Structure formats: C-alpha cells, structure tokens
Amino acid sequence: MIFGRSERGKPPVEPVTLKILVAGGFGVGKTTLVGAVSEIRPLRTEELLTEAGRPVDDTSGVEAKSTTTVAMDFGRITLRENLVLYLFGTPGQERFWFMWDELSEGALGAVVLADTRRLEDCFAAVDYFERRAIPFLVGVNCFEGSARYPEDAVRRALDLDDDVPLVLCDARDRESVKEVLVGVVQHAMTQAARRRSAVTT
Fold it and tell me: What's the CA gap between 20 and 89, in Å, rounded?
C-alpha cells in the first residue's frame, strides 16, 4: 500500500459495515448463532444461572441451560470483500430489555430466533421490531426432538405480516446461519426500496 492506494493503482476497498441484531427468548440459541458464524472470537457476556434467578428465569424446555447473556453477544462476518456484518445478540430475559434500544440504534435489520416448544417467548421481540419499523426475519431454530410445524401454522401463531420472511434454521450450523443473515439483508434492502418508492410516488 502506498499513500492509501494499492500497488496496482486501485484504491483500497472500503467495506460497507452493517449491523444486525439477533433477538428472541431466553435459551433460544442467540449466543450459539453468533458463535457459529463469527469470524472472530465472539464477545460474550454470559453468567451462570443462580438460585436467586430461578423465580424470573423460566428454564422449562431448556433445563440443561446453565448460563445466560446479561449484556450482549458480539460477532463479525465478512459476506463479501466489501460487505461486513456486525452481529449483536440481545439478552433474552425481560429484566435486561432496557438495553435493546441502545443495541438497535443504527441496525439494518434483525433476526428473531424462535423455538416451537416456547413460541410465546419471541412475541416480545416480534412486537419490538414491528413497533420500531426495523425489518426482521423469523428464524425457527430446529432443536433436536422439537416438533416440526408447517410454516403457515408458525406464521399464524406469531401473527406475522405476509412480507416478514420465516425460515427454518440450525443455529449451530455456519451455512444455515449465513443463509439467515443473507435473508435479513435482502429483506431490509427490499423494505428500504419500497419506502423510497412510496416517497417518490
């Protein structure tokens, strides 16, 4: 590099950085999703579950869970040379929801992870992004042993608008997570184009 230019005379590529939130209920797989796809060692703010938290931490359906995110998870993935996603996993418990407003500042879009065994746990995240007009995609995390339901049934249960994408995914699998993130970016771009079109007509 010479004076900020490559030796071949081409200017260096300045990547576009995009912020994606990963939200959902307690124990739905947000930390796992960020860790599965991040190209850097994810920043995690997990603490052990304690007896003191039992009255407020509903672990039914996720009895093996021993830790919880108390601030956020952070990871990064480069989709192309000029496109980098920063991933912010939100805390799932209600007592940490005050952090969501700050984390969502400047976000392009969001992934709402859902677990069909505890579908009601993602209602708050769906409502949050709908009220703030932040484009989001629902990713149904396919846990081993959990029942599989038709997409239409899950969509009705969550009362999703027709234009909100819903996909099946495995939060442990890098390729599956990448497809989810690409879906969020595409959905956000479509929504932005739709808004621009509405303004100019």
Answer: 9
Distance CA 30, CA 2 (A): 42
Around Cβ 33, how many Cβ atoms within 10 Å? 31
pLDDT of residue 36: 94
Q: Which helix (H) or strand (E) holds 103?
A: helix 100-104
How crowded is residue 86: how many other Cβ atoms within 10 Å of its Cβ?
17
In order of 30, 48, 49, 50, 81, the CA distances from 54 in angstroms are: 20, 12, 8, 7, 45
Instruction: Kindly tell me the number of DSSP H helices and DSSP E strands found in the chain.
Output: 5, 8
By DSSP bridging, strand 166-169 and strand 136-141 are: parallel
**Whole-structure pTM value:** 0.78
Contact 172, 178 (CB under 8 A): no
Q: Which two tokens stand for residue 157?
A: 């249960």
Residues of the chain with pLDDT under 70: 1-11, 43-71, 92-97, 201
